[in-house]
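Lab notebook, design round three. We kept the backbone fixed and only want residue identities now. Task for the bench partner: fill in a sequence for the structure below.
Input structure tokens:
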């Protein structure tokens, strides 16, 4: 398929983007490259190949959601630079 100026403007209009006159030739070249690549892909024999939705066939293995207390507050705050009895202290970054 040959891409021309009218096609570029039509696609830009459908996509609701503005294209400057000096950008048209660049878009013609890029869209032609994309379509040439797609035509090349269409030449491949894909019989017997299932379409992919995800890149791997593995499924999530869900586990039961169980509450565990694996670390105490004191142990969690041991390496904190600044803290009080229960919380990390960080510099204020937002102003009202």
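Proposed sequence:
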């Amino acid at each position: 398929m040959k891409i021309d100026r009218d096609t570029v403007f039509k696609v830009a209009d459908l996509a609701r983007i503005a294209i400057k006159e000096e950008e048209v030739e660049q878009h013609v070249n890029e869209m032609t490259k994309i379509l040439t690549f797609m035509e090349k892909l269409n030449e491949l024999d894909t019989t017997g190949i299932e379409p992919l939705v995800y890149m791997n066939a593995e499924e999530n293995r869900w586990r039961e959601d169980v509450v565990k207390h694996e670390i105490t507050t004191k142990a969690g705050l041991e390496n904190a630079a600044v803290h009080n009895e229960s919380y990390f202290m960080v510099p204020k970054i937002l102003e009202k």
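Keep this in mind before ordering anything: Residues 24-42 form the longest helix (19 residues).
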